[in-house]
Amino acid sequence: MRNHITHFTMMKILLLLLVTSLNIFESSARSCLITYEVRIQILNEIEDSQPLTIHCWSKDDNLGYHTLKYISYYEWSFCEQAFKGSRFFCDFWWGSKHKFFDAFRSEKHGPSDWQHYWFARKDGIYHSSFNKPAQNGTPIKFYDWE
Prior knowledge:
Helix content: 10-25%
CATH architecture of the largest domain: Sandwich
Main location: secreted
Protein name: S-protein homolog
Distance between the termini: 78 Å
Strand order of the largest sheet: 4-1-7-8-9
Number of domains: 2
Pfam family, one: Self-incomp_S1
Subcellular location: Secreted
Number of helices: 1
Strand content: 35-45%
Oligomer: single chain
Order of helices and strands: HEEEEEEEEE
InterPro entries: Self-incomp_S1
């Protein structure tokens, strides 16, 4: 009987340690079990007194509106959805100018393309990513302002 209680107590302790370690791991870093983590950063490079206003969202997450002054940024990360795929949209406003675009779309990116940088500039929206770094240190222009 004593061995049974000891074994049962040991199992409870191991289970408690496992749950505690998972909680610590989860709180210290995002854990994408089946897929990979994607990071997106938006940087305002517009030297102007008017700030850049952004609003980004997916069908599951609304990241809200953010106002970025010159050389400030906003970033977020998410776990790519295994079977449904992920897609994030963004609206950028700068004065009377506006641009709506896909900030991330699973069909265009793979696991090696996990870090994305979007740059708002006076002449448009530029992009660089971990997998497709900036050419000669310069991000690639993707969109003009409307």
